[in-house]
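User: For a benchmark we're assembling, each entry needs the component sequences followed by a predicted structure for the full assembly. Here are entry 17's components. Please fill in the structure.
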Amino acid sequence: MSGPNYISRRSRLLRTFKNAGIDALLISGESNVRYLTGFTGDSSWLYLSKTAKVVLSDSRYTTQIANECSGLDVDIRDARRPMSVAAADVVKKAKARRLGFEADHLTVTQHSALHARIESAELVSTSGLTERLREIKDKWELTQIREAIYQAERGIGVVRSSLRPDQTERDIRYTLEAAMRSFGATGPGFEPIVGVGPTGALPHAHAGDLLVSESPMLLIDWGAETRSGYRSDLTRVFVTGRVTKQMRTVYETVLKAQQKAIAAIKPGATCKAVDAMARKVIANAGFDKFFGHGLGHGFGLDIHESVRMSPISEQVLEPGMVVTVEPGIYLPGKFGVRIEDDILVTNTGHEVLTSVPREFDDAVVEFLA
Amino acid sequence: MSGPNYISRRSRLLRTFKNAGIDALLISGESNVRYLTGFTGDSSWLYLSKTAKVVLSDSRYTTQIANECSGLDVDIRDARRPMSVAAADVVKKAKARRLGFEADHLTVTQHSALHARIESAELVSTSGLTERLREIKDKWELTQIREAIYQAERGIGVVRSSLRPDQTERDIRYTLEAAMRSFGATGPGFEPIVGVGPTGALPHAHAGDLLVSESPMLLIDWGAETRSGYRSDLTRVFVTGRVTKQMRTVYETVLKAQQKAIAAIKPGATCKAVDAMARKVIANAGFDKFFGHGLGHGFGLDIHESVRMSPISEQVLEPGMVVTVEPGIYLPGKFGVRIEDDILVTNTGHEVLTSVPREFDDAVVEFLA
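Assistant: Structure for entry 17:
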């Protein structure tokens, strides 16, 4: 498998310029710059037009850009020359007339500095031009995402097989991160959430000092990051103590909601329609008050990318998109259940990329009494 | 030692409103929100005025905010209600007239959404109001930074004592991160830079597959993050092979530059004057072309904070500031030397908080021949 084709990515982006009403674009979003150039550092922008392709960076990155980015000009500034000046210089030299900027990434301060320094071109707000390209993963990206899933799934296997009642949430987080690295990950794809009992009811809690033995439920939301920067994102709940009827009901409801939503994933489906499939199952079971977040999201170089699956998302699924499906029910002070898998939209429907067992019986972990 | 006094922090921020020409402020910078409230999640904003203190968040964080933030009202929105609507509602209810926003954190898109939804108040651009408070660390913060330094220094001790010629940069990075965690860190304060030989000449390289044995020089730039979110930031170079005259000259030049700069740190000194002390030593030795970045930066909840020590920084040092001093000389294709310590500005001068040995002879690591 050959690597990413940055030239083709930049060509596709250039073809969006006419509709956006621009003849050049200043790309400042870090993952967008990486997607379009291969550069893995930060604080660097890409100026892109038909006639000029320039990376704006500083001397920390001179050699790294030479190694990582081919076919691009480079403007290296020193500590005395702000980014806005470097940008104004390239705009003037390249004779841009209508310069797009990324409104979702540029801060108000950065925009003001550009506005003050760029006189020869009009600044035009754009949103999501590169992000929309990134929604559709190419073949190489899919191999990277599959690798990130492999690393995450091997990692959780180690956690599960080494689980003990006397481990803390933090112990489990560190075991998981080390295990994913032993399978080739550079690290976690995001800070893993490891929540015992009530902590699992906080959808974004930090792993702390609760012991596995302190509650019968354990929630883990984790993923890996590959060397190429691609991520995976899963959630599983483990039952580590006496099963109650409520636990089983909540778990089965979430799983049913997730499976209904996954079944609805195909090209042409709207994100809000898929979200509604899950939300309806949870509402019918009387738990709608306890599911406040969106159903899922795209991921890749970032852990949260376009598309978003939520009740207000009009986005339409297309082949090549990869999304999480992760409904949850959170009972404050008790426990939370979320089940999350990674789904590829195919030409005819979908493929579930993740394969950690998800039935209730699979979730039960037995310790010596 | 009691914990942070959030009420006092918010009071000090409120006292800056008059000068800034605002009667309320919308704080969207994640670390600023944490500094002012104790909240450790993301995607949440703080509305602050004399009469109203409201955290704007979503249902993922309902319980976490209740646990972490006392003395604040909370507005929890669901997936159907964008942040800009929640903000407009609180502005209207609290009757703000001139609403400040953080221009360094708000994106152009977020600003446009607020502008479209908020009719009753004028939006006023502000910059660095909370960041300026954060420049001066209080007693509790200093204990946290000292703890982060302890974790980092114990960690590098483990790395040094276990260093082998057959380790890769990546092996060393993972050993370091695990060691810092064993001393209480939640993880690294930033992605550790571990660079063998030529990789050390890239000031911000990723740890890769080079072996220690492949070059006589090894650069490590690392720090820890405490459970409370505070960080440390150090750099050391190890000499792992045959010493050349050039290596020694470059090392001694960087060290001399660093020591001259540290000696100049005291209340009232300008950042550019301190930067100039180091830059002059490096220029006099003929290496000015090979030192392109600023001399150092403040740190705390973020790894890069105000103040910035660079040739163009007019900022003035004050007691309670904590900054890095990290000059470097980078010889492309050969090696880089950077020596970085963490310095507290005291009432009468400064205190070097870090204590890993930094003389050239200390840097030499002997392996069995």
